[in-house]
Specification:
The protein is an all-alpha fold and about 80 residues long. It is built from 2 helices and no strands. It comes from Nitrospirillum amazonense.
Length: about 80
């Protein structure tokens, strides 16, 4: 018999947060390394996008936690 397993939502969120955090660090470093005010606009846009991704992932984590609590309440 083939078993189907769903990915752990907490692990998925954690991996996304780590990836997003690494991108924020990369883009922030690129911006601060810019000399003479010659900042690459792509880095700024990417940093903003990464920050929004990080914020969205924290909301996903909160939703997963809320749903887990509801599920425990149902079975309690």
């Amino acid at each position: 018999m083939t078993s189907i397993s769903a990915p752990n939502p907490y692990a998925t969120v954690a991996a996304g947060l780590q990836s997003s955090s690494a991108r924020v660090d990369r883009d922030a470093t690129a911006i601060t390394a810019s000399k003479g005010g010659d900042i690459n606009p792509t880095d700024v846009v990417s940093l903003s996008s990464d920050a929004l991704t990080f914020k969205a992932l924290t909301k996903v984590a909160q939703t997963v936690d809320d749903n887990s609590k509801r599920l425990l309440d149902i079975f309690a």
